[in-house]
Amino acid sequence: MRQLFSCFLFQTRPGDGLSPRRRAAFWLWNALLVTGAAVGLGLASLLLATGQYSARVFLLDYICHPVLLLLNLLPPLLLVGLLYAATGRAWLACLLASLPVLGLSLGNYYKLAFRDDPVIASDLLILGEAGKMAGQYKLFFSNKVALALLCAAGSVLVLALFARGRPRGRVRAGLAAAAAVCSAVLIPVYASDSVYSKNTNTAHINQWSTTQQYVSRGLLYPFLHSVKDALPDPPEGYDQKEAEALLAQYRDKDIPEDKKVNVVAVMLEAFTDFSAFEGIEFAKDVYARYHALEAESYTGNLLTNIFAGGTVDTERAFLTGMGPKNVDYRANTSSYVWYLKDQGYQTFGGHPCNNWFYNRQSINRYLGFDEYRFAEDYYGPMYGASPTLNDYLFLTDLANTVAERLKADAPLFSFSVTYQGHGPYASDASWWNEVDSYIGNKDLPEDQRTILANYLGSVENTQMHLVDLVDSLRRSEEPVVLLLFGDHKPWLGNGNSVYDALDVDLSRTDAASFYNYWSTRYLIWANDAAKEAAGHDMVGTGPDVSPCFLMNVLFEQLGWEGDAYMQAADACRREVPVVHSYGIYFTADGAMKTDDALTDEQRELVRQFRCLEYYRQHHFSGG
Fold this sequence. Notes:
Number of helices: 25
Largest sheet: 8 strands, mixed
Shape: globular
Strand content: 5-15%
Helix content: 40-55%
Structural class: alpha/beta
Radius of gyration: 28 Å
């Protein structure tokens, strides 16, 4: 028995003295161990795929759903098979397969914890930037992470000791061919939207949450499904000639000389108005300055497509008028910046952070900016700040720069993005003042109170310097309009812990919770000279809109018609002003609707808008 055990378990090939039956058993034993290790790797990935959500998702939604389980286990199984064929060593194949599988799984686990957002294929396009930003968050070691790593390490060790069979070349070639053929056959399955829609579980998740819909399907399966979306595909029913015909109904309209006012737009990092949340016990009116500014402005809600991160989505939707975020910005791209540049405007901006972040250094040129300042080339050398600048210096510098550029003969379009409000916010130290000077909420854990106080302190500080910026524009004899808006709601603790403690409903199951999750505010303010040029005071309540329609609202207030695309997009904006990536729409009367609840006319307007977006992405018109 001992001899058989030794021959059976520790040999690279069965001994010559073994019978055919035992030789077959030898290879079956090795195959079962390799298969088991690959399955174990897949289960470790699924364990991490639940993130901070209930373990019931793993036990009841993954394990008890055979098709979904198989779709998540097949990728590591095929990968281990290919690597086993390539190396001839089971343990090495498992080790090499663990690197991408667990790397992706851990990245997804921490992204869910920090931003309630899963890893999708398009994230790999900005992997370097994501890694640099990840350093700002405090990684933690949980039981799930420990168990997943132990599972992977144990699988490698077991294979190294007990699955040492090394098939001959012909067998390995056959194994590689089989794995490759199976992978090719499965590509349409993983890409299929119908298969994807059928394989979900809503029992333990919020069916309205895109994040939780993703989580309900595991990780490897939804990640592979997202590969086809990494580069934009034409919307359903897209026809280039139809899009051209829609645009041909309009002509680019010049801005009348007497209506050419200077525009200063500032997107405020994570800036939103929390005064509507009844769960916060404010120690003082943190938003007093902002509300005073709103009282003399045209204001409304902005329904962004992002939460706690992904700034560039709101930013580029505003600049281009296009909703999809996965746009191939590798060449000049149609935008409203190009339109204003063609109208004789200076196009300028700044962001007090690194130029590599979201590749702004290159992409902002593609969008039509003549000059854009970053930490590397301006703010760092000027102020000695690395890599970021707070709003005291940034907004003061912006006010001075605008004042200088208003002296030029050409009107100014300036678009800047702040950084000061960027999360995460410290949970163990108060940055701005004593925690009690901002909030009561004594029932909250001290770390959560500190996070919230640090956010509110940043918001209050930003307002102080916004008022200074407005006062400088108020004094100007040149006509200037200021547009302010927030890019997304802020991060408030891993897993939205502070929101939960404040009983803020982020379920997105109705209009109120949808606004809680996605909305920020926008504000259009004008000095006296700009009001005179526009012909009205620009005060009042504006429509709730998607970021891709915010420039339309601005142009409407200024009496500008814009380019052909803006005029065509207005047909949708006036009837369906919120076209959300979540698959939800808000109509002009404020009703929240899904696609099947839209009227035929509204659905057609949305379809046409999506087709126009796609056409605009791929047909540059400017410069």
